[in-house]
Amino acid sequence: MRPSGRKLDEMRAVVIEPHVMKHAEGSCLIKMGNTHVLCSASIEDKPPSFLKGTGLGWVTAEYGMLPRATNSRTRREAAAGKQSGRTQEIQRLIGRALRAGVDRSALGERQIVIDCDVIQADGGTRCASITGGWVALRLAVNGLLKAGTIVSDPMLDHVAAVSCGIYAGQAVLDLDYPEDSVAGTDGNFVLTGRGRMIELQMSAEGATFSRGEMGELLDLAEKGIAELVAAQKAALA
Description:
The chain has six helices and nine strands. It is an alpha+beta fold. The strands form two sheets. A five-stranded mixed beta sheet has the order 1-2-3-5-4. Strands 7-6-8-9 form a four-stranded antiparallel beta sheet, with helices on both faces.
């Protein structure tokens, strides 16, 4: 039934390759099917000005797509002179999601910037960015701990994200672009490794959905998150 031939509750193949950038404090390349995102973490020794003197750290994110990440060339946002509303919304989501998994007091007065650059897009780029961004963040924090710069691990739990939706009247896990572009209901689910919810984004794209369908999508998301957390652990092993 699905264009890819996958089962309703089947994820795309997930591969997370760590340490792909020489200079970044943490980095990985995450592949979720044909969606590929390069994630890096950069440590800055001072926090944003609004946190100065608070003892709290900060995690934020920037997101972008290469011009030929999609079927037709997309103009670079730098050439246009501004970020699109979509880009701003996605990078704010990534930052919120990753901060939820961090004890900012243990991090201390410093900022970690997560850069997520989409090399190839086939649906679910924000979810791949969050999942890969967490691995890059974990690697950067590992470096701080190893150097003795911080003494307590600020990472509270794994954070991962997956999309689910109603496609052709059926609840499906991990939408690729052919499904996402015509789904009646589309949702992005950000959860911790223990199953705690960070953010749920659901919208009726072509048809309304029931509470029962919402629960069905959440069940699928929990299954997908468990698989993504396992992939994160494997990449860090």
